[in-house]
Design a protein that fits this description.
alpha/beta, eight-stranded parallel β-sheet, binds nicotinamide-adenine-dinucleotide, seven-stranded mixed β-sheet, ornithine cyclodeaminase, domain 1, 37% helix, Rossmann fold
């Protein structure tokens, strides 16, 4: 389909310039977009990014002082080949659970017609963020890990941890054990209750960071991002052949581990340089081998030997949200889900 044909199709469902489609979180979830689709959509987003076929400025943000370590990011993304121009406005407030019994991550997406720039849809972004972040980590594992790994690890068992565990087998089909660890033991139980029915490998509670890191060939983490790292994982526990994939930056790791990796990748160099500029890497960024998307696109080599230590540090990119929101808007319009509101 050509761009103007797509616009015409959109316009048959939403009168562009007069209406917007509003899709709630529950409705987004009901659309039936599968994990396999999300894995593929995020893989495509990474590849577009790797080939520089996107426009994606580094996030800009504000940091309300109402809680520690808050962030609210504006994330515009444009993928011309997919006719998607959008922005995510998302927040992360780590004390929400304790203070308000609310999730720490929130957000909305605005999807625009890239021919005229007008808004077409506003959708929930919480489900998008949860799914695409875990799927990006799994895509990282597909290209960077020893994919015959039998044991993986998950540190941080909240919203992201649960979803990461559900995505691991897309990249690591031979897993027979997933070790999980969280400073809050109840979070581990909740993860197992939710994810075990979906996952083939046995999910096992670990007793410590050490147990996870010394046994897992691929270690995923999604705990809490803090501006200055508070390392819990000793450098000597990490060995060659492991792959460390983080959605929570360097928070848990010793700087020596980050700097001695054979390959250190990030999702967007521009983003991480920006984060370094506002103080997130007090010891400085390691030498960056490349971007996750460059490996997914085949521009740079992923894992080249079984013994390499590889680190993949992804903070999340708007182009991943863009691929997701395009699928959501299309599916919602096809299935007549959501409601039209006047502009
Ligand atoms: N990279 C991305 O694209 C992206 C996107 C969304 C969220 N995130 C990040 O992922 C992380 C998790 O988000 P979430 O929505 O799952 O939050 P959540 O609050 O649902 O879960 C976080 C879990 O981590 C645990 N935890 C906190 N500190 C820990 C530590 N030092 N060691 C082990 N466990 C610890 C908590 O007990 C909690 O169970 C956050 O840091 C968030 O900023 C990253």
């Amino acid at each position: 389909m050509k761009s103007l044909e797509y616009r015409e199709w959109l316009n048959q469902h939403v009168k562009i310039g007069q209406e917007v489609l509003w899709v709630t979180q529950a409705e987004v979830e009901e659309l039936g977009i599968t994990r396999q689709e999300v894995f593929d959509l995020t893989g495509k987003a990474l590849a577009y990014h790797g080939r520089k076929e996107v426009e994606m400025p580094a996030k800009i943000g504000i940091h309300p002082k109402t809680q520690a370590n808050t962030l609210m990011h504006a994330m515009p993304g444009y993928i011309p080949a997919e006719f998607v121009a959008c922005v995510k406005w998302g927040g992360c407030f780590p004390e929400n659970r304790e203070k308000f019994n609310l999730a720490q991550t929130s957000g909305l997406m605005v999807f625009n017609d890239h021919e005229s720039g007008l808004p077409v849809a506003v959708t929930d972004a919480v489900w998008i963020t949860k799914m695409r972040t875990a799927a990006v980590s799994a895509n990282g594992a597909k290209y960077l890990a020893n994919t015959d790994a039998r044991v993986s690890g998950m540190i941080g068992c909240g919203v992201q941890g649960k979803e990461h565990v559900k995505f691991m087998e897309f990249a690591l089909p031979k897993l027979d054990k997933i070790l999980v660890y969280d400073v809050n033991p109840a979070a581990m139980d909740a993860l197992i209750a939710e994810a075990q029915p979906i996952v083939k490998a046995k999910i096992v509670k670990a007793a410590s960071f050490e147990e996870v890191v010394k046994n897992a060939e691929v270690v995923f983490s999604a705990s809490t991002i803090t501006a200055s790292p508070s390392p819990r994982i000793k450098d000597e526990w990490v060995t060659g052949g492991q792959t460390l994939i983080m959605a929570d930056m360097h928070t848990l790791y010793d700087d020596r581990t980050m700097k001695r990796a054979d390959k250190y990748l990030v999702d967007s160099i521009e983003e991480h340089v920006y984060f370094a500029g506002i103080g997130y890497y007090p010891h400085g960024l390691p030498n960056i081998y490349g971007e996750t998307g460059e490996v997914v696109a085949g521009i740079k080599k992923g894992r080249e030997s079984r013994s390499e230590l590889i680190v993949d540090n992804n903070t999340g990119m708007s182009v991943e949200d863009a691929m997701m929101v395009r699928a959501i808007v299309d599916r919602a319009l096809e299935k007549k889900v959501g409601r039209l509101l006047p502009l």
